[in-house]
Amino acid sequence: MADRTGVAFDVAVETTAAVPDGPARVAGRWIVRFAARQPLGVVGAVIVLALIITAIFAPQLAPHGPKDAAFAQHRPPSAEFPMGTDHLGRDILSRVIWGARLSLYVGLASVAFGVTLGALWGVVAAYFGGPADSASQRLVDMLMALPPIILALSLMAALGQSVNNVIIALAVLLIPTAARTLRSVTLSIKESPYVEAARAAGCSHGRVILLHILPNTLATYIVLVTVNIAYAIVVEAALSFLGLGAPPDEPSWGGMLTAGTDALEAAPWTIFFPGLAISLTVFGLNLLGDAIRDMTDPRLRGGLG
Amino acid sequence: MRKYVARRLLLFVPTLLGASLLIFVLLRLVPGDIAEILVYQSGTESSAIQQKQVQQIRAELGLDRPVAIQYLVWLGDALRGDFGYSYTQRRPVSEIIKERFPRSMELAILTLLVAIAWGIPLGVISAARQNTWIDYTVRVVSISGLSLPIFFTGVLILWALVKFFRWMPPLEFVALTEDPLENLKQFVWPTLAQAYYISAPIMRLTRSQMLEVVRQDYVRTARAKGLGHYAVVYRHALRNSLLPVVTFIGWWGGRLLGGIVIMEIIFAIPGMGTALVQAVNYRDYPTVQAIVFVMALIFLSLNLLVDLLYGWLDPRIRYT
Fold it and tell me: What is the distance, to the nearest Å, from the Cα of residue A301 to the centroid of all Cα atoms in its chain?
């Protein structure tokens, strides 16, 4: 929880340490400062790191295949099946581990597409302005007039159920917010003297956008990405929970929760572990996202969703 | 103020129409329209007769006309309260909406009221007792509320009810007008489950706003002129802290409506959310289209209301 005095301190450190450093040392110092200033962010980073490792090494970590329905149904947690088995006799631990991979894949891919497209849209619209900008703003209004889950559900209705379609639906959900945020950032950058200077020196519009405007929107872009990964993961789980996200045999945490709800009383472990996995992931990503947001730009605190 | 209201209202209608057009076009892009679904239901080989039937149904439903015309026809009907016919529920869509709209609204309003009644006082207490154990407890409880996805909270509550109270969601829905007590019994758990989630950001925002406002000059002036602690906190600080909270409620209206869908599914409340999920599953596009339209209407109205309220509460907004 950095307060305003922390920000002033931050500036002071940077002006006194004006000795040129290699990028490794700069990055190293940034991490040390991050750890000192944002202890909760470190907790978040550890959780996220664990998630990433689980996702990458899922085939090695999982004792069984995520779709192997080879065991007795609804077995309670035991030494053999630490998280029990589900209604089809699949090992829940293995499904939770593979679920990390699915969640992270969907979260990263949808944010990469959605936030990037939205960002480019916002930057270009703001840079050129005029009627095209107004028109694109009205389109953003229309997309934002639909409650997110409702929009995602209609997209899934049109596209059909598959993991890749979930990614498309989530990306569409993320585009308007990213476009609006980046538009407002670009509007202020566009008026700055260095953009004017670049234009005066004869740079083309494309060059100005690529080399002078985009680099300066990077901080906002990074914040949008970190904040929205957790959001995308939750919405994916919600869609799968409603039975309209990933197909049922895919190891999605949300889908596992739905399957467990049918046997709530007889086999409560079928809901506990996938639910805990989602909660822990969201908790970790939120802590990390908050910390990065506080570190990169204190003005953004509380403003973005 | 009048100009401000007029500008907001002018944006309202085109945005709503645009959103409904987006969904309309989207649902028309789907391969396999209702005519094909109706004819090929049995899963037999497509014959010349069936193809002719498909053509016939398309002509009857006007599906062979350009999308733009179809949309205008749909819109004209919708404005007169006719949203088409649901082939899966075998009744007019407007009937489904009329039946289910009050249920979903009841859930949404109850959730919002409980979240506000719970979030704002906690935020004030937390700020007034900053950095004490009360503050820490309130903050930890609220942050955990934000990290638990509502479908997990909902399922956990359902599990606890089944396990400890042998309570199952009732099979028959009882309307508020029939038996208010029985009706509220059905709504209390989904309301609490979602209000826990929504109240967390309300609490956090109230707290941070209070902390900021308390440091302002006019609060110091109020104290200096000898006002009591409660008068300063509630009359001066709280009122001004509530502005961002009001905007926030509009902001989170979308999540609230999405959450309603999930709560209805978990607690078996036959509202618009359950109807929507069912319609998406059976590719019942007229129903999907109508429910999405109504949801967008609610969401936009909520935002408009929040904007107007904000303009009314904060005179600075009106003149920009």
Answer: 17
pLDDT digit of tens for each residue in chain B (320 aa)?
677 778 778 888 889 999 999 888 888 777 666 677 667 665 556 677 777 887 887 787 777 788 888 889 889 988 888 888 887 888 999 999 999 999 999 999 999 999 999 999 998 888 888 778 888 888 888 877 888 889 999 999 999 888 888 777 777 777 777 888 888 888 999 999 999 998 988 898 888 888 888 778 888 888 888 888 788 877 778 877 787 788 787 778 888 999 999 999 999 899 999 999 988 888 788 899 999 999 999 998 888 888 888 777 776 665 55
Hey, of B280, B285, B294, B302, which one would you mutate to test binding to chain A, going by the most A CBs within 10 A of its CB? B280
Q: Distance between CA atoms of A146 and A149, rounded to whole angstroms?
A: 8
Q: Rounded CA gap, B247 and A221, in Å? A: 24
- Which ipTM was obtained for this model? 0.84
Cα dihedral B168/B171/B177/B178 (nearest 10): -100
Buried b / exposed e over A41-68, threshold 16 CB at 10 Å, is bbebbebbeebeebbeebeeebebebee
Type of residue numbered B101: F
Residue whose pair of structure tokens reads 């999930």 in the numeric block: B262
Contacts of B22 in chain A (CB under 8 A): 142-143, 146
Compute the distance between CA of residue B195 and CA of residue B183 in angstroms, rounded to an integer. Answer: 18
